[in-house]
Design brief:
The complex is a heterodimer of chains A (239) and B (120). Chain A is α+β, with helices and mostly antiparallel strands and 239 residues long. Chain A has two domains: 2-103, Beta-grasp domain (Ubiquitin-like (UB roll), Roll); 106-238, Fumarate Reductase Iron-sulfur Protein, Chain B, domain 2, CATH 1.10.1060.10. Chain A contains nine helices and seven strands, in the order E-E-H-E-E-E-E-E-H-H-H-H-H-H-H-H. Chain A has a five-stranded mixed beta sheet. In chain A, helix 6 (167-177) crosses helix 9. The radius of gyration of chain A is 21 Å and the shape is elongated. With 120 residues, chain B is mainly α. Chain B has one domain: 3 helical TM bundles of succinate and fumarate reductases. Chain B is built from four helices and no strands. In chain B, helix 1 (17-47) crosses helix 3 (63-90) and helix 3 packs antiparallel against helix 4 (98-119). The longest helix of chain B is centred in the N-terminal third of the chain and has 31 residues, at 17-47. The chains are: A alpha+beta (239), B mainly alpha (120). The A-B interface holds A 11, 13, 16, 18-19, 69-70, 93-94, 96-98, 104, 138, 156, 159-160, 202-206, 208-209, 216, 218-219, 222-223, 225-226 and B 1-6, 8, 12-13, 15-16, 18-19, 22, 26, 86, 88-90, 92-93.
Chain lengths: 239, 120
């Protein structure tokens, strides 16, 4: 069994004015993820370390953190790939730290609510909604988003201006707009057209690189720049 | 709830190679603008007559100008490549694979540059 040093950015609101680094020597086997390394610390070395996790299989999106400066799901990042270390684990960038590696997701949740992430029914079909595989293909990849927020930690525009709606919320907005069963596009255009909507994106593209579910938020955002432009000119024509 | 907000430092773009390349893409605009201005200045000198145009051409062969054009050429090539690379993300959905869209853009530049060089 090998040992790797894991350095965590610690912050306890009750006692700390600012975050501080704390290192732990963690024994690991080749099949251990960074999350398991953190669990080892909590169970055997320092029970005060706080972090979020649930599924351990890249489905729930809870365990995102900066691993050596890169946003990753800690459950699918392996210690063997980071050996000999040391590994630096920090709460996801651009979000306020609640405690240690746990961030406050409140800002994102507000944005998620603003894009109306549900199908808004138009004309009700007789019986079930019908959808062809081709129609499903239009939105399917965007529906794979697990709200892990790695894309927000990767987005410098969000870091510089947290009013920017951001990659995941805009990708999910596109997921519903592109769904043939949805009739809520007009209701979502206000978010798309806003200065902090799609136009807040400068196409850095790192959001799509770090996404653990192969969603392409940069594509969704830029598809909606076309929609926003069309919407602008159509409104002018209607005047 | 007390939280800690980490400040974004001015040097944020130096911490990750991805951001560094992005900033280089953005910064290359300065050189591209300068190159466009140099060309426009040439057009203006052409309007002033043959002698003025010849003087402009002579100024282009100074070491400083040659160095500037060498840097500008590298940055124009890089800038163009970055935009071709992300072009598929900015297009409406088309039934072509992304790599073909990128290859089409690059091929377009190669053909146009070849034609201009052949005609020059």
């Amino acid at each position: 069994m090998r040992t790797i040093r894991i350095e965590c950015l610690r912050y306890h609101p009750e006692t700390d004015e600012a975050p501080r680094w704390q290192g732990y020597d963690v024994p690991f086997t080749d099949d251990m993820s960074v999350l398991q390394g953190l669990q080892h610390i909590k169970d055997h070395i320092d029970g005060s370390l706080s972090f979020r996790w649930s599924c351990r299989m890249a489905i729930c999106g809870s365990c995102g953190a900066m691993v050596d400066g890169v946003p990753k799901l800690t459950c699918e990042t392996f210690l063997r790939d980071l050996y000999p270390g040391p590994v630096r684990i920090e709460a996801l960038k651009h979000f306020p730290i609640v405690r240690d590696l746990a961030i406050d997701q409140g800002d994102f949740l507000g944005k998620l609510e603003s894009i109306k992430p549900y199908i808004i029914s138009g004309e009700k079909p007789k019986g079930a909604y019908l959808q062809t595989p081709k129609q499903m293909e239009e939105y399917y990849q965007y529906s794979k988003c697990i709200n892990c927020l790695l894309c927000y930690a990767a987005c410098p525009q969000y870091g510089l201006n947290d009013k920017f709606t951001g990659p995941a919320a805009l990708a999910l907005l596109h997921r519903y707009n592109a769904d043939s069963r949805d009739a809520g596009k007009a209701e979502r255009m206000e978010v798309v057209n806003a200065e902090d909507g799609v136009w807040g994106c400068t196409l850095v593209g790192y959001c799509s690189e770090v996404c653990p579910k192969d969603v392409d938020p940069a594509r969704a955002v830029n598809q909606n720049k076309i929609e926003s432009t069309k919407d602008y000119f159509l409104r002018l024509l209607k005047k | 709830m007390k939280t800690y907000v980490r400040p974004v430092r001015w040097s944020w773009w130096t911490r990750n190679p991805y951001y560094l390349w992005y900033m280089l893409r953005e910064a290359s605009c300065v050189f591209i603008t300068a190159y466009a201005l140099a060309l426009l200045w040439g057009l203006y000198r052409l309007l002033q007559g043959a002698a003025a145009f010849e003087a402009w051409r002579q100024s282009l062969s100074s070491p400083l100008s040659l160095a500037f054009h060498a840097v500008a050429l590298v940055l124009v090539v890089y800038h163009s490549w970055t935009w071709f690379k992300i072009m598929p993300k900015t297009l409406p959905r088309i039934p072509l694979p992304d790599w073909l869209v990128v290859a089409g853009g690059v091929a377009g530049v190669v053909v146009c540059s070849g034609l201009i060089l052949a005609l020059a």
